[in-house]
Amino acid sequence: MALTRGLNDSEIASLLQSVLEDSNSSENVSESENELLEDDIQSDVEDESLDGNESGENIASVQDPNQEFTTHSDSRIITVALPTLRSKSKHCWTTSKGNSSTRTSLINIVRTARGPTRGCKSLYEPILCFKVFFTDEIISEIVQWTNAEIYLNRRIDNASATFRDTCADEIRAVLGILTLTAALNNNHLSTDDLFNNTYCGTLYTATMSRDRFDFLIRYLRMDDKALRPALRPTDAFAPVRKIWDIFIRQCNTSYIPGSHVTIDEQLLGFRGRCPFKIYIPNKPNKYGIKIPMICDSTTKYMFNAIPYLGKTTNTAGLPLGEFYVKELSRPIHGIYRNITCDNWFTSIPLAKGLLNEPYKLTLVGTIRSNKREIPEEIKNTRARKVGTTMFCYDGPLTLLSYKPKPSKMVYLLSSCNEKGTIDDKTGKPDIILYYNETKGGVDTFDQMCSLMSCSRKTNRWPMAVFYGMLNAAFINSYVIYAHNLISIKKRL
């Protein structure tokens, strides 16, 4: 790293004069089309610490004495004298935004309203909303393969009602018991406590006996076990694949998301044996099944999800993050939406690719500092003032670096074809404020699932996924029910 050179008094005076002339002759016009709110953002990467006075001067010296950086005290934007910047990968960025039309870009115009599709707009009962996601087809699959498992394990001398075959109504009764445990926060109780009239009353014993409930949960199956050896090499998710696809299809076709959506991952807690179980230390459960999903940023409706299957995931040659973004966003291809995601998904090629056919989507997300497309000139320097921002552009792409702390640097990428602007109240870039407003769609959905969860202890990962599907169905059905209820009240 080159040594930092301080500026003498004459250089400072000349630069200050040029800043005053530039500020009087130009206007700071924002081209952002998004409505942004105030929030905090945490850094994604640590950098070298800053010594000396943190407040610094309005004119900051940099690594290369041949490059001139000026800091505008009003906007906290650092600009580079060079017209273009090149990264390690030879990616070319410009330091100023080119002239663009005053008309709003077509890709930033959304013509479809958020809400349930036509078939779901007339559902005003919670049970009807829930049946949208757990359809009769899913119930019949469970009944068929549960009875097959019961037949394989039935003993001749066990002819009592506890060990008989099940039916669709009884499976729905099991789902009702699981729903009730979620609503009453009883999912952590053992079946002995659930079916104890002294402890929980007669809510559960009125439906079925404890032994029958335990028996059905133990033998509940969702696939043909005879086909697993042939399917496992190509699809490790085979034990729940069929009902999962039906469930996700219903999520896709029952709701139209708004203009802002979020992609992130959910971790279904599970500590048993699973070929694609992973460890994420910053998650509450830490061990479990990772499910990347896409949610509406406002209503938190989950309309697509794809399980992460580890090394067996077929990405068709695409990087993992790019594959999940393109596949998860398939229901909204071509209908002009913006995707907010974190640095596990975001990349420069992905942002450019989403602008083209058949995607027609924009992207805003944090980006890792080790990406070779980031030019060295916008990275952290010891003399750079805290709270300053640097922007660079590549057509519709806007890349920024923001320094919230002396040893922290945040990098964000936007493909919304907007000029870099700073919020007057917070001093933060508007792109960061928009990211903070829309980044929590999946996290909030996950939190809502944990607040009303039917998940029970199990040593079978297909049951953990089954419980996760039920939790997702609770939230999605609630979103549709609340939307329809609000709509009918407005008409009255």
Automatic annotation (TrEMBL):
Positions with biased composition (Acidic residues): 30-51
Gene symbol of the encoding locus: LOC131804509
Region entry Disordered, spans: 18-68
InterPro entries: PGBD
Organism: Musca domestica (House fly)
Top-level taxon of the source organism: Eukaryota
Protein name in UniProt: PiggyBac transposable element-derived protein 4-like
Keywords per UniProt: Membrane, Transmembrane, Transmembrane helix
Biased composition (Polar residues): 55-68
Domain spans labelled PiggyBac transposable element-derived protein: 126-478
Positions with biased composition (Low complexity): 18-29
TM helices/strands, residue ranges: 461-481
